[in-house]
Amino acid sequence: MEAAKSIFSYRKYWAHRFGTAPFLPTTRAEMDALGWDSCDIIIVTGDAYVDHPSFGMAVIGRVLEAQGFRVGILTQPDWTSAEAFRALGKPNLFFGITGGNMDSMVNRYTSDRRLRHNDSYTPNDEGGKRPDRAVIVYSQRCREAYKDAPIILGGIEASLRRVAHYDYWSEKVRRSVLMDAKADILFYGNAERALIDFVHRVGKGEAVNQITDLRGTVVLRDALPDGWQELDVSSIDDESVSIPRSEGEAPAAVRLPSYEQVKEDPVLYSHTSRIIHLESNPGNARPLIQRHGDKEVWVNPPPIPLTTPEMDWVYGLPYARAPHPSYCGARIPAWEMIRFSVNIMRGCFGGCSFCSITEHEGRVIQNRSHESILKEVEDIRDKVPGFTGVISDLGGPTANMYRLACKDDETQKVCRRLSCVYPDICKNLNTNHDSLVELYRKARELPGVKKILVASGLRYDLAVRSPTYVKELVTHHVGGYLKIAPEHTEEGPLSKMMKPGIGSYDRFKQMFERFSREAGKEQYLIPYFIAAHPGTSDEDMMNLALWLKRNGFRADQVQAFLPSPMSLSTAMYHGERNPLKPVRRTGTEVVATAKGLRQRRLHKAFLRYHDAENWPLLREALKAMGRSDLIGPGKKHLVPAWQPAGTGKSGGEGARTGRKHKDQTFLTTHAGQGRRPDGDGPAPASASGAPARSGPSRSGPSRSGPVRSGAPRSGMPRKGKP
């Protein structure tokens, strides 16, 4: 991996003399109060402005401010005209456009494409405050407001749409969002390093359209640059399915099939998806080129991960750690969820095929130091109103990947594995949890801190490698429930998800229960599952339902797999081929996929086998499957033969999806708990000790049950995304 220029090596821009703003300005009046006549950069975001390191616009805004630039924020502007985009005037350098911490389409629609009426990133949880495909719409309005102002894109929505991508909501392959937004450059992944370099070059007068060499960016070109060689993988056949090696000293770029080709050929789309993911290691990735009409979309290699000192600097900037005062104390659910939590790292090397973390943040874990993390805990204790002594989460994308990495840097540089833990944990992966255990112990000892909880999901197949870690976690850092993600019980769907077998879950469960008993605590695991993932048959879902019943789980709320842009699972869904292996025209594994609404609802119904509203659908399906033996009154049966009066007409949980309703109590029943009321009975304690309610999550808003969507894990506002 090439050496990266340190983010500390730049001389501050001249405007640093204005100092640090208590909040980045959102109005002209706030600019006047700071003595600004203009903004150098204006960030446009689909989220409410919360000045906190879990919100992307705050991270990027504070990073740019620390480099000496004047940064304004247009938060959830009225997109029906260009007027709201003139509120802060024309930026001296550029507009930075982001849809927000969540993809605007995932935020707005359920996995059944039904409209949501709430938005956890908006004051008072109000829906409809951001447009569909927000990045495109905001870019259009900025261009209308100031025709010649440069526009750059960033954040999860742009990052996952950097090349031609399957769009679940329109059921077609769309162009790179860089083309549709008519922007000048797109930043993908964690963009601090590239953005700092970019903004200083622009500040010195370099033209935006001349900056084409930055890692982690996507630009448009007319043709392959002089001196480059092209490695063509734009077609597939039975003989040639791998990426050719470059020859000689000339730099090489990998030519993907064009937008026009993948638009018409789902199998070629699956092949393209595989190539993109194989070219994702910063140590060996080459530029990707994809023809769109008469333009080349040029994807530079992924950004070099931040070092620990650089991560500490980003998270140590002077955040106000609060929503902007203009909201007057309005409830912002996403802020409430992370208000007392601390993000200790970025990235995930799990490589789950349905998850967006790898595509956005990469597989290399970027860690903060103990000192930086403990300092943030102390800041929460001393500065955040309402702190009661409980840190609600000390985690990240995966709670127990902190400081886990390849044992050898040279090996990591050449690795092209899609996952470090599938099909087995790589022998070159360091799985030592000692540093994390030490961090937990230091955090617990801080004065004024009563409890440190771990609410982020953890990778249990890694955890069982360290019984000391599991004991430490279970004894001190679980507040009644711990969420983990088996995703399924059957080998068919698990092999498509790149998840371990259910045996790993059983081993972790045994350790969890043993250490809970030794600690004298009654604690439960919250297992997450995905309905209707590619490769899942009706029989697979039936077997999962039987497993749930045997183990005493009754899930309150479920969702089906949502094909997010760019994921490998989405390539399976659209192309019906397995991109985890080389894709050929013939002989390639065909992946059966639940696409029809009826079958997707059936898969969800299996996960809510206990809901009488689902029994007619399940009885019909079981009879068609030749499993009438599962219909009856006994413990061995899945659903009864009788139907309660007035039930069986609303379609179970699926009929409630998308309807605006009050916060739901978490009604999942666990083995040993006994049955609990379906009405307004008290909810069990959440990790923080308070009643657990539905709210923002990694997979989207309003997910309260342990069986969750396969939507991209981008909902939690924990990572700084531009």
Topology:
Layout: H1 28-34, E1 41-45, E2 50-51, H2 56-66, E3 71-75, E4 94-98, H3 104-108, H4 134-145, E5 151-153, H5 156-159, E6 165-167, E7 172-174, H6 177-181, E8 185-187, H7 192-203, E9 217-221, E10 229-232, E11 252-255, H8 259-264, H9 266-278, E12 288-292, E13 295-299, H10 308-315, E14 322-323, H11 333-338, E15 341-343, E16 345-346, H12 357-361, E17 366-367, H13 370-383, E18 390-391, E19 393-395, H14 409-414, H15 434-444, E20 451-452, H16 460-463, H17 467-476, E21 481-487, H18 491-497, H19 502-518, E22 524-529, H20 538-550, H21 568-575, H22 597-607, H23 615-624
Parallel strand pairs: 1-3, 1-4, 4-5, 5-8, 10-11, 11-12, 15-19, 18-20, 21-22
Antiparallel strand pairs: 2-14, 6-7, 8-9, 9-13, 12-13, 16-17
Give an account of the 3D structure:
The chain is α/β, with parallel strands linked by helices and 722 residues long. The chain has 3 domains: 217 residues, Rossmann fold, CATH 3.40.50.280; 71 residues, no CATH class; 227 residues, no CATH class. 28% of the residues lie in helices and 11% in strands. It is built from 23 helices and 22 strands. It has a 10-stranded mixed sheet, with helices on both faces. Strand 12 and strand 13 form a beta hairpin. Helix 17 packs across helix 19. The longest helix is centred in the C-terminal third of the chain and has 17 residues. The C terminus is likely disordered.
